[in-house]
Write a structure and sequence with these properties.
single chain, alpha/beta, Rossmann fold, 7-stranded mixed sheet, 45% helix, globular, binds S-adenosylmethionine
Length: 300
């Protein structure tokens, strides 16, 4: 029996469980090329025509595939991943659960800890109000979690930038009840062009934006943001790693047409130009799926 028929047989079983679906997905995606463009065209069209409609019974996967805002990984898709509330019954409900519980979605949810912990380290080292820039803020979930946990009396001042006005409006609505003071500013702007009158920041954070940039644009944006980093400041850039499990890559690449640049830690380091001017480190999250490039600008 071929891959497709075997998968269809498994998902059509009346007693399909979450674990059985994961195993069927593992069998299906095994030995496929990472990028769908390298897949045999006949197999790819079978996947698209026969399997994609089944996956799209999941409301979360359906949103991710249909890209109502015109691009993959929009703020609402990220919001659905962060809040992690699988919905629906039957096959759609199962696909929703399997996707939202995948290592990649767990890694997205881990961004809140990375954001809060890195910012807290900088707060401890600096006894003054910090100035923070969030590039490609999406639904501002990391920031909302920081506010929920922080007991810092000298709360930083935050500048949130996203090129999507709906992301900005959504974030304002989400954060209004959590942070009632005026230390939050929002800009609907392309981050490649963003500058607030030459303002500089002590902490610059971006996760889930550089993953969409080819190396030349990655470098260009990184240098631009490094110019906006204060001396003694820290930048944290999240990029999904090349260790993403194949079933997650399969769902994103083949089913959702959601293409990203997976980057290993050494690759991330090499994308920093003028590296000698900075203290550069990388960390991976506890899922080993999210990599972070950490750049500190020296004080002298
Ligand atoms: C995948 S989301 C991640 C957001 C957030 N870190 C999270 O995990 O929820 C990336 C965001 O970057 C924004 N974005 C992408 N390219 C951008 C650009 N050139 N300028 C500003 N925002 C951008 C998108 O609109 C999206 O909201």
């Amino acid at each position: 029996m071929d891959k497709i028929s075997r998968f269809l047989k498994a998902v059509n079983s009346k007693t399909l469980s979450k674990q059985a679906l994961i195993e069927a997905l593992e069998q299906l995606s095994k030995n496929l090329p990472l990028n769908s463009k390298d897949c045999d065209s006949e197999l790819l069209s079978e996947i698209v025509n026969k399997l994609r409609p089944l996956f799209l019974e999941s409301s979360c996967l359906n949103h991710a595939f249909s890209k109502p805002f015109g691009y993959a990984g929009d703020y609402y898709c990220m919001y659905l991943i962060h809040i992690n509330r699988p919905s629906g019954n039957g096959l759609g409900g199962l696909f929703d659960r399997v996707f939202l519980e995948s290592k990649t979605c767990q890694s997205v949810r881990e961004r809140s800890n990375i954001f809060s912990n890195s910012l807290r380290d900088l707060e401890i080292a600096n006894d003054r109000q910090l100035n923070v820039l969030i590039a490609g803020c999406g639904p501002c979930f990391e920031l909302a979690n920081y506010f929920k946990k922080s007991n810092n009396l000298k709360l930083p001042s935050f500048t949130c930038v996203d090129h999507d006005l709906s992301a900005i409006e959504f974030s304002k609505d989400q954060l209004i009840s959590i942070s009632s003071d005026n230390k939050l500013r929002y800009f609907c702007s392309n981050i490649f062009k963003f500058s607030n009158n030459g303002e500089k920041y002590d902490f610059i954070y971006s996760a889930g934006l550089f993953d969409y940039l080819r190396d030349s644009l990655f470098k260009k944006l990184l240098s631009r943001l490094l110019n906006q980093l204060n001396k003694g400041g820290m930048m944290v850039i999240g990029n999904l790693s090349n260790k993403i499990p194949m079933i997650d890559s399969f769902t994103m690449e083949y089913i959702l047409d959601w293409k990203i640049q997976r980057r290993g830690r050494e690759v991330l380091k090499k994308l920093v130009t003028n590296a000698d001017d900075y203290d550069i480190d990388t960390v991976e999250d506890c899922l080993e799926v999210g990599n972070y490039l950490i750049i500190r600008k020296m004080n002298n």
